[in-house]
Backbone:
């Protein structure tokens, strides 16, 4: 059984897709053991509560400096002992000590086709604002493993989504979530839980004969 901790900052629709995936059997061999938020007001915490999953708030603002927060966050994660950490709309940079302690065991969902529209300053609605400003016709989402860089780790899966002429950032965000994010992230977790993928250098490869489907 893959024990996962999901990190969130906002509304938590990606968390919901994971919880629903576990409930309906789209994601197998997986248990969500805790949800961590940097924001006490995150709607995602309500979604966790509704499924009796412990919600933990760790806000950088409550610590004397970033290093103290990084230590506390990493210690908490080590205490929880997850097999996989899932960043589902988590808008805080993962501490380097956590990346090394959980190497190859942290995944992130990003709302664009990496390497476009990613890195510092590209998160949440801002990504879709920049996509519309640039006038690209196709965008999408990416699930990737997390390394020390910003949105630079090995890519697990991507899905393209069309940009329409009448789009606002909000409309585009919703389409990217519906057509890409809520499908890609649960599938990636299920693939990891059933040993269907592995990292080879900076690439993610399918494993023939992985356990399960
Ligand atoms: C999602 O679109 C996710 O891809 C994005 O934040 C949103 C969170 O929505 N993540 C990033 O931008 C990370 N760089 P949610 O709270 O409803 O899942």
Residues:
């Amino acid at each position: 059984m893959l024990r996962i901790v999901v990190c969130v900052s906002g509304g938590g629709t990606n968390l919901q897709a994971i919880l629903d995936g576990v409930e309906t059997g789209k994601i197998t061999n997986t248990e969500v053991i805790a949800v961590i938020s940097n924001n006490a007001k995150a709607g995602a915490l309500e979604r966790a509560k509704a499924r009796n999953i412990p919600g933990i708030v760790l806000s950088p603002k409550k610590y004397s400096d970033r290093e103290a927060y990084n230590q506390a966050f990493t210690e908490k994660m080590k205490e929880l002992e997850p097999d996989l950490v899932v960043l589902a709309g988590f808008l805080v940079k993962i501490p380097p000590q956590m990346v090394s302690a959980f190497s190859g065991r942290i995944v992130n969902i990003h709302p664009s086709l990496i390497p476009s529209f990613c890195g510092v300053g590209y998160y949440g609605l801002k990504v879709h604002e920049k996509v519309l400003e640039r006038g690209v016709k196709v965008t999408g989402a990416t699930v990737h493993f997390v390394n020390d860089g910003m949105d630079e780790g090995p890519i697990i899966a991507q899905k393209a989504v069309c940009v329409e002429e009448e789009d606002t950032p909000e409309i585009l965000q919703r389409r990217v979530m519906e057509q890409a994010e809520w499908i890609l992230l649960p599938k990636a977790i299920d693939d990891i839980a059933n040993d269907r993928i592995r990292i080879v250098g900076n690439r993610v490869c399918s494993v023939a004969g992985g356990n399960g489907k």
User: Anything to note?
Assistant: The helical segments are 13-24, 43-50, 66-80, 96-101, 125-134, 169-193. The mean pLDDT is 96.
